[in-house]
Amino acid sequence: GSRLRQEDFPPRIVEHPSDVIVSKGEPTTLNCKAEGRPTPTIEWYKDGERVETDKDDPRSHRMLLHSGSLFFLRIVHGRRSKPDEGSYVCVARNYLGEAVSRNASLEVACE
C-alpha cells in the first residue's frame, strides 16, 4: 500500500537570485526560495563570506526574509567601504544536504 507519510528530502533552490544594479542608499532584494523537508535554513554568502543579517545583529541593514530572500534596507557604499557590492549566493541546508543557488552580482550604480 502507499504510505501517506511524505519522505524527507534534501533542499533544492526553486527561485534563484538575479543580478541587480542599484543606487547607493536605495533598497533592493536578492531573491532566493528553497524547498526541502525539513524546511531548509537559508544563509547568504558574498564573495565566499557569510553575510550578516538582522538575525545576527538587529541593527543590520540587511534582513533575511521569511522566504529566504535577502532584503537591503539601503545600499551602503562609500569610497573606502563597499560592504554590499559583490557576488552573492544563497545556500539552503537541512540534515540531508545543501543546495547552492546561482551567483548573483550586486552592483552599485555610479552617481
UniProtKB/TrEMBL annotation:
One Gene Ontology term from the biological process aspect of the record: homophilic cell adhesion via plasma membrane adhesion molecules
Keywords, sorted A to Z: Immunoglobulin domain
InterPro entries documented for this protein: Ig-like_dom, Ig-like_dom_sf, Ig-like_fold, Ig_sub, Ig_sub2
Residue ranges annotated for the Ig-like domain, each copy included: 11-107
GO cellular component, one term: plasma membrane
GO molecular function: cell-cell adhesion mediator activity
One Pfam family named in its UniProt record: Ig_3
CDD domains reported for this sequence: IgC_1_Robo
Highest taxon of the lineage: Eukaryota
Protein name per Swiss-Prot or TrEMBL: ROBO2 protein
Organism for this UniProt entry: Alectura lathami
Gene that specifies this protein: Robo2_1
